[in-house]
Amino acid sequence: AGTAAALAVEGLVVGYAGAPVVDGLTLEVAPGSVVALLGANGAGKTTVLRTLSGLLTPRGGRVLLDGDDLAAVRVEDRVRRGLVQVPEGRSVVTELTVEENLQLGALWRSAGRAARRTAVDEMYDLFEPLARRRASAGHQLSGGERQMLALARALISRPRVLLLDEPSLGLAPRVVAQLFAVLRERADATGLTVLLAEQNVTSALSIADRGVVLALGEVVADAGAADLAADPALRHAYLGF
Ligand code: ATP
């Protein structure tokens, strides 16, 4: 109670069969901030995000959205409350055009036609390449364009807290920079709160306010992004570079 965090995790324990994969995770994400969730392959990042989305049920601990315990809140109701995970780029509807994909995303807001038009155009302003490809079908897009479309479709529903699981995977550095710049801009301009799980540590920390490093399901570092990026011992021990 009384917490200022948009998203808070308290003593989270999650596992599959056997020993827990996430064991007592505690973290807070302040409103309008970007937090990078870092850690080697298998550290538990995906497990954390799936638990926050409501796809996995924790064995212990709590997830709070604006101070509200989400234990009894189903996946779709978490989305309705503004806790949204960006799906992988290959999830875009490949038969539909970019424009149609965005219109579908805007339907969520059940606003009038004009408001939806404005919302879609706002996405074209944020993602130049999508504006040029508006009449192209999903299957004609590059991997980077699909990832942009997936992010745009999530943003158009006006989430309060956005969860991303390795959005940089397989993308060219220039595209990663473009995607991450949009996340930073939305956080600054609209107060969007972002939890970004990444193995691309340098890129993630370059736009993040804070970084949280997971190893074997526990937090081994939680610090300002610049401090983390500048800590060679930490990088060497947990981040593999
Ligand atoms: P990656 O970047 O490879 O996805 P990660 O940090 O996201 O790594 P998780 O995917 O959360 O890590 O996996 C953490 C641990 O949980 C790993 O040891 C993994 O083998 C195990 N694990 C993940 N999913 C399952 C599952 N469905 N059933 C059993 N074990 C799983």
From TrEMBL:
One matching Pfam family: ABC_tran
Gene3D superfamilies in UniProt: P-loop containing nucleotide triphosphate hydrolases (3.40.50.300)
SMART domains assigned: AAA
UniProt cross-references to InterPro entries, sorted A to Z: AAA+_ATPase (IPR003593), ABC_transporter-like_ATP-bd (IPR003439), ABC_transporter-like_CS (IPR017871), BCAA_Transport_ATP-bd_LivF (IPR052156), P-loop_NTPase (IPR027417)
Keyword hit for Transport: yes
Membership in a protein family: Belongs to the ABC transporter superfamily.
GO MF annotations in UniProt: ATP binding
SUPFAM superfamilies reported for this sequence: P-loop containing nucleoside triphosphate hydrolases
Record's protein name: ABC transporter ATP-binding protein
Domain ABC transporter residue range list: 7-241
Top-level taxon in the UniProt lineage: Bacteria
Key words, A-Z: Amino-acid transport, ATP-binding, Nucleotide-binding, Transport
Entry annotated with the keyword Nucleotide-binding: yes
CDD domains: ABC_TM1139_LivF_branched
